[in-house]
Amino acid sequence: MSDDRTQIDEVQDQGDGSGTELPARDLPDVAVIASLMESFEDATFTAAKYASSETIYHMIAVPVADWVAFATEAKDAGFDTFIDLTAIDHFSEAPRFEVVLNLLSTTDAQRIIVSTRVPYDDPSMPTLTGVFAGANFYEREAYDLLGVDFSGHPDLTRILMPDDWQGHPLRKDYDVGVVPVEFKAGSVDV
Question: Which family does it belong to (predicted)?
């Protein structure tokens, strides 16, 4: 086990007394992050450190139903700096789309990366614009390029592609080459 995680070995409440034990759950050693995760039983935690960096990335996966509540509690716990929100198309996996939120606590000098997954047939989830106003354009970008629908967003319209564009060009099943490339005058086609 990594030095960045703590394993909970004891189950505090045995429930109905049947003797069925719950599996151990990994929680971070960082108190503010461990405290944040205690409210979300379905959240999972992993830590990663890249060889070229001393930064430890605390990655937390939450169900889409907990997305806004987790972001709200994270902000209240001190992760009040919205860094980034992006989406990833995991073409051969289900659920297919992953939405990733990057938050920073300037008071604790900690960073969390929160993610959730939505399926191809219904790539929708609630907006975070009520929690972090800065999520506005990032959610519009994820909608425009990957087709993730953020319900409750104040202006979920295209931000990069023309309004009449068909499809979402960063989806891995998007047909490439359907739009001819027009080079500047004097350039040579290769």
Answer: Belongs to the complex I 30 kDa subunit family.
Check: CB of residue 63 under 8 Å from CB of residue 126.
no
The number of domains in the chain is 1
pLDDT digits (tens, 9 = 90+) for 62-87: 999 999 999 999 999 999 999 999 99
| pTM attached to this predicted model | 0.78
Looking up residue 73, the CATH number of its domain turns out to be 3.30.460.80
3-state secondary structure of 139: helix
Q: What pLDDT is attached to residue 161?
A: 94
Q: At what angle do helices 31-38 and 67-76 cross, to 10 degrees?
A: 140
